[in-house]
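Supplementary material to the annual report.
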Amino acid sequence: MTDKLDKTPSGPADAAPEQVPPDIIRAIPVRHYGRWVSAVLVVAVLGALGYAFAQGNVRWATVTDKLFDSSILTGLWHTVLISVVSMAVGLALGVLFAVMRLSKNPVTSSVAWLYIWFFRGTPVYVQLLIWFNLALIFPILNLGFYKDYMTAVMTPFLAALLGLGLNEGAYMAEIVRAGIQSVDEGQTEASHALGMTQMQTMRRVVLPQSMRVIIPPTGNEFINMLKTSSLVVAVQYQDLLRSAQDVAATSFAVMEMLFVASIWYLALTSVFSVGQYYLERRFARGSLRALPPTPLERIKSNLLSLSNWRR
Amino acid sequence: MTAQPMVKAEGVHKSFGPAHILKGIDLEVAEGEVFCLIGPSGSGKSTFLRCINHLEQINAGRLYVDGDLVGYRQKGDKLYELKDSEVALKRRDIGMVFQRFNLFPHMTAVENVMEAPVQVKRESKAVARERALKLLDRVGLADKAGNYPSQLSGGQQQRVAIARALAMQPKLMLFDEPTSALDPELVGDVLDVMRGLAEDGMTMIVVTHEMGFAREVGDSLVFMDDGVVVEAGNPRDVLTNPQHDRTKSFLSKVL
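Predicted assembly:
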């Protein structure tokens, strides 16, 4: 502080003799007693919570034992698989229905509206059960070229995929539509004025800019999907939660296995959050004068500010 | 000057729903001419400009660019709407500069200028980049080629926008109040670039509030009010010796 202020008033040479160094302010800093009190309180609550879990009847050895159990890892793989595939289906349907919703054709736009209305308006748990029990009303699936018993076609995986994917499509349609509409009309006009066609304008000008609006909620949707996929227990799909429950049923370690599942869900969501962050950075090009710091840079600056915390 | 006008309007009308914006515009713009459109806001001058490259569709009358009907094809006495791709083809030859610049924010300055030649004319990136850099140099921004629009001042953005339009080697340039969104001290740079273009013989239609520019650079001037052409002529005559009362009262407010 001091040397900075000393440097600035160096005026022109002929005005020098009258220069008096400025009187640097040395005030007593405000004491933030509130901060100390709240910090002590929070640490006390955390300590109590930790003590409670240490006293609780938790077999931590079982948690670490079963964390890499082969059936747990299989369930983990299934959770990742159904989430990724359902999200892919949701994205594809989302783009399709967003474009239909924005089209000038009243039939396609009403159908898109109806789709979104239905799949967003009913709980995903109910939708999963409907797909799973479809054989009750259509015992035989007949597509003309293909005919089979519905129970043979509607495997737990397919029921889970249809339930999660179609539901996700309705949410993604609204996200994509918002993204497309967020791009200023002047961009489309400028692109058209240069002689670019509708398709070129969409692909080169509108979609790249709408990605900035689309990606953050899509990342949210994906993290939600990782967790919502635990509902597929309802359709007998062998996901992470169901594997954990199966192990719990034989080992009587109910809470321990739920902890194991939680640890894996946290690990998955953390990994994908980091991925989302870097994706957002990539599409922020041009919209910000300077890109935001990466998490590592931010941790560094946070640690620095923590050491200056008392000021 | 050639016999065929670059732009010819015959009784052009345009309405947005119940709002009748253009009420029969007749005018001609010769090749190589700097044609200035002035008038109060809401007089329809920007709308008319947007009709020329078919960003707006006219409701009545005929509008020709370089002898071709804008937006339609005439067979016998029937008019057929042009397909989107045909409209896009016509727009290649008409450059447009907007009041709000409308640069593509996710591309650098040089990428903005290269975009249309590469995408529309299928030029190779190397060729397009070379010409883009020359154009940026021409508008005085050779050192800003790698900057994104958000890193440029308004005047710099508008000059990139002019370079972007020139990259398509248009035969006609439309300027829609190119300096109205700029800080006063940045207006001069943009006008200098436009003056240079005029000296090179570019046909330009300029909607503007810069009376000084109109007087110095303009070859013709039209004063529009309430959707009609009120007065037209040589800019120096119209600006110094307006005949019509509405022109007089407008000029007394802006000069």
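Chain A touches chain B at residues 184, 186-187, 189-198, 200, 204-205, 208-209, 283, 285-289 (CB under 8 Å).
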